[in-house]
Structure formats: C-alpha cells, structure tokens
Amino acid sequence: MNVKLCRTELHEASFNGRALQLQTLLNQGGNVNSRTQEHDTPLHDACLGGKRLCVKVLIQHGANLDAVNITGRTPLYNACWNGSSDCCTMLLKTGASPYTEGLSSLQVAIEKGHCKCVIELIKAQAKEKFKSGSSTHFTLNHKMSLEKLVWKNSLHVAACTGNVKMIETLLSLGASPYTKNEKQITPKELTVPFSECYEALHQAETNPRSLMGTCRLALLYHKTMYMASKINIPNALEQYLRWEN
C-alpha cells in the first residue's frame, strides 16, 4: 500500500491495466470499493487510465458505479475526462447514472472534445428520464437542471476551443446555434470569421434543424418527460424519444 495516498494494490493494478492481477486480488478478498485519501476507488483509477478490462472486472465484483471522490468526480467523469468511450459505454450500460451530484461528466466530455462520450451521455440521459417514475423524477429534475445549463452553453465551449468536430456533434444532437451566453453572445461570435467552426455554425443558423428534432431535444430536459413511459405510444416514437434511432 502507498501510505502517502492510501493507495492499495487494487488501485495500482486498476490504473495500470493489470486485469489478471486485479482479478486475483479481488478473489483473495480485496475490497473492490477501497478508498484513497481523496476517496478514489479502484474503478475511478481504471476509468482514469482508460483500462476497459479492469473496469469490467471491477463491475463484475460489485464496484460502486457512482462513487464520488472529494473533488466531485465519479468513475464516469474520469472516463469522460480521459475520452475512453468504451469505459463510458460500459459504465452506462451497467447502471451508472448519467447525472451526478458532483462535477458534470457531460461538461468535461465537451471541454475535452470527446464526441463519442458526449453522444453516449445524451442517449443515456434520455433513457434515464424516459424510464424514471413519478417517485424519482423530482430528484432527477434537480440534477437535470444542472445538465441543461451545461447543454445550453455547450456550443460556446466548443467554439472557444475551436473544435469543429465537437460543434458538428452537438449540432447533430440538437444544440441550438442561436443560444446566447450571459454576455448575450452567440457561439458563432466566439469563432474566427470564416474558419471551419464559423462556417459550421453559420450553416446551422441558415439551415434550421427539423421540428421533430427540436421537439425531441426539448423533451430531453423537460420535467414531464417521464410521463411518456406511462402512456401507450408507438414503438418507433418511444425509440425516438429514448434516442435509440
């Protein structure tokens, strides 16, 4: 054990991708949710290192998918920070919450330019909201209000970083090029005139997205979206609202 940070052999094996050693340690009774002084779990470290096999092993042994460290980071946040879409997808498919009480996974994925992680998170948020019942949607609404703010400013972030691929990804997911930040500036106004980012946003302004796409995005962060799962709607529409097509 690293005494300074209270890092166990599980943490070291997870971060360095030593899946076989990790499996052995866990089989010998290692605590899958052991914490460092910063409250990082082995799953935090595996996701930070982008070690997909280690993430799989830890999940199979019951790792806490939504553990939060003292800085507000979850394993999902670390996967999005690192740009490991494989780890991100695995966490979400096995039950990790796309929302968090700590730092926003969606925000860091946008800031770092990890398009695949952004897509997976948006899809997971739609599914989570769609399936949530009346007993849980009020709690989700608080978390989603934070994510809605992140989404509102997403194109501004991408424009500032000059990431045209992220701009195109966000636009394809329904982000509005007309949104203004607190200084009443649009994303296009933050780009270099006639650059790739400028042209992508200009084209989006002159070719508005479809009404169907606008409605789907509006429902994603709407407080009553959970009610859609309570009524009898066509399968094709349900899949669309869950961002499955």
Descriptive account of the structure:
- The chain is globular.
- It has 245 residues and is mostly helical.
- It contains 14 helices and no strands.
- Helix 7 (105-112) runs antiparallel to helix 8 (115-131).
- It has a domain at 1-96: Ankyrin repeat-containing domain (Serine Threonine Protein Phosphatase 5, Tetratricopeptide repeat), CATH 1.25.40.20.
- Pathway: Protein modification; protein ubiquitination.
- Belongs to the ankyrin SOCS box (ASB) family.
- Residues 189-245 form the SOCS box domain.
- Keywords: ANK repeat, Repeat.
- ANK repeats lie at residues 5-37, 38-70, 71-97, 150-182.
Order of helices and strands: HHHHHHHHHHHHHH
Tell me how many strands there are: 0
Structure class:
mainly alpha
**CATH class descriptor name of the domain at 1-96:** Mainly Alpha
> What is the terminal-to-terminal distance?
47 Å
Query: Could you describe the largest sheet, including whether it forms a barrel?
Result: none
- Secondary structure tally, helices: 14
Keywords: ANK repeat, Repeat
Domain SOCS box: 189-245
Organism: Phallusia mammillata
Family: Belongs to the ankyrin SOCS box (ASB) family.
